[in-house]
Amino acid sequence: MKRIGFIVNPVAGMGGSVGLKGTDGNVEEAKRRGAVPHAGERAQRALEQLKRAKGLCFLTCAGGMGESSLSAVGLENYQVVYAPGSETSAHDTRTAAAVFLEKGVDLILFCGGDGTARDIFSIVGRDVPILGIPAGVKMYSGVFAVNPDAAAELVAGLDTASLRDSEVMDVDEDAYRAGTLDTRLFGIARTPVIRGMVAVSKQVYEQPDEERAKGEIAQFIQEVMVPGALYIIGAGTTTEAIVRYLGHKKTLLGVDVLKNGRLVAADADEKTLLRLTEREKDVRIIISPIGAQGFILGRGNQQISPAIVRRAGIGHVIVVATPHKLQDIPELLVDSGDPVLDREFGDSIQVICGYRIAQRKKVRH
């Protein structure tokens, strides 16, 4: 019988759709902006797949930190070993991790983002393998499954999975909100892995050839932009080059909106995007995959929600990436939170990688 420590960070990811770029220390502001929790839903999606698995016993926390998700899907083989207060915090995550460590769990399965991974690792280190169900705004660490379904497969196949060293990254939240990506290595965790089911840590490319490629992509995008269309432009340095080419300053780690060469909105949240697209007949989305990981939706751009993608249409999602970045990404990943929409992307998508140059890239969802 495998003993699985199970933690849900109930507020993970709440800051994404409202443009906060993170929820740590900003839960009340996220709520004020209308954010709603979704980590429980992500956890339940994984747990639904585990209802058929045999030989698993879950140790968890009371209420929204685990018990509610297990109960919601009808899993009965679990034990509540920690009860947090009414308002959960990082302290509760660390305390629960310490209880799991004391009780000798075989794996800690958590639902959250980089902050949750860091809190758990700070207690268990390399003594207990950890695996994340992705639910945060930022997931730069390598301990996350590519989506909830993959997390379930890894847990169900724990007997045959191998363990690998995975980076736990510490992201400076204040710098991130200000538009600067400042990361440091927090530690090296052990993570169960079956090829293709666990993300790797994000890579950032800063080379002369990269800058030239970004410029070529920007020039081509400017030439093919349709007059009257509303363009939603995701985060990243490649998309930044496009906006800069058009004469504007890009929110590097946020979402901006342009129309007819004019900046309509900077650092837009989901609510703003819904308002701006409500009466538009032609909406297009320009996004770039996260380096090394390959996610085009569901990581760092949750403002571009399934509702926004549907308003634009899959055919109006434009993916851009430099050749160097593409060569290190075996496939593109889509994890928007809506599995039906994810499947509509099909098996492959065209990626603009230069001036009038594109590659066809495999898509997995």
TrEMBL record:
InterPro entries: AcoX-like, ATP-NAD_kinase_N, NAD/diacylglycerol_kinase_sf, NADK, Put_ATP-NAD_kin
Organism: Methanoregula formicica (strain DSM 22288 / NBRC 105244 / SMSP)
Signal peptide: none
GO biological processes: NADP+ biosynthetic process
Pfam families according to UniProt: NAD_kinase, NAD_kinase_C
SUPFAM superfamilies: NAD kinase/diacylglycerol kinase-like
Domain of life: Archaea
Source organism phylogeny: Archaea, Methanobacteriati, Methanobacteriota, Stenosarchaea group, Methanomicrobia
Protein name per the record: ATP-NAD kinase
An example Gene Ontology molecular-function term: NAD+ kinase activity
PANTHER family assigned to the protein according to its UniProt record, in alphabetical order: ACETOIN CATABOLISM PROTEIN X, ATP-NAD KINASE-RELATED
